Amino acid sequence: MTSAFILVVDDDDDIRETIVDALSDEGFDAVGASDGADALRIMGAAAILPALIFLDLMMPGMSGADFLAAQRAAPALIAVPVVLLSASADLGAKAASLGVAEFIRKPIKLDVLIETAKRFSANRS
């Protein structure tokens, strides 16, 4: 089992908790954040950087796009891959324009999410 640190950023408590629980059940050290600002606080306080960030695009407060801009402005954080999570109709185009590693369309299929987490955490070992 892996113990890679994965950060899940989503303003919907039920979605965030479901993803964190599913990742934890697979052996990941999954932590949830309610928006981009919360995610930056968690990353700033963490002993290690996440192997992967699952990031909701549309959130009140600091949106996914705003988080990505802040992440890219911080040299220590820029290397952490981000997988965008959204129900947006033009998600592929938005993901490409934001330069994220990948995207997963909502509603999320947990098997796809887990496979994505395993693939990215394996690449970071």
Unreliable stretches (pLDDT < 50, length at least 5) are: none
What's the level 1 CATH class?
Alpha Beta
Mean pLDDT: 94
Radius of gyration: 13 Å
State the assembly state of the protein chains: single chain
The tally of strands reads: 5
Structural class: alpha/beta
The CATH superfamily turns out to be: Response regulator
- What is the H/E string? EHEHEHEHEH
- Percent of residues in helices: 40-55%
Please report which band the strand proportion falls in: under 5%, 5-15%, 15-25%, 25-35%, 35-45% or over 45%. Answer: 15-25%
The spatial strand order of the largest sheet comes to 2-1-3-4-5
- How many domains in all? 1
End-to-end separation:
13 Å
Q: Examine the secondary-structure arrangement and name the CATH architecture.
A: 3-Layer(aba) Sandwich
How many separate helices?
A: 5
Give a written overview of the molecule.
It is a single chain. By secondary structure, this protein is of the alpha/beta class. The protein is globular. The protein has a single domain (5-88, 98-108), classed as Response regulator (Rossmann fold, 3-Layer(aba) Sandwich). The two termini are 13 Å apart. Strands 2-1-3-4-5 form a five-stranded parallel beta sheet, with helices on both faces. It has five helices and five strands, in the order E-H-E-H-E-H-E-H-E-H. It has helices at 13-25, 36-45, 64-73, 91-98, 110-123; strands spanning 5-9, 29-33, 52-56, 82-86, 102-105. Strand 1, helix 1 and strand 2 (29-33) form a beta-alpha-beta unit.
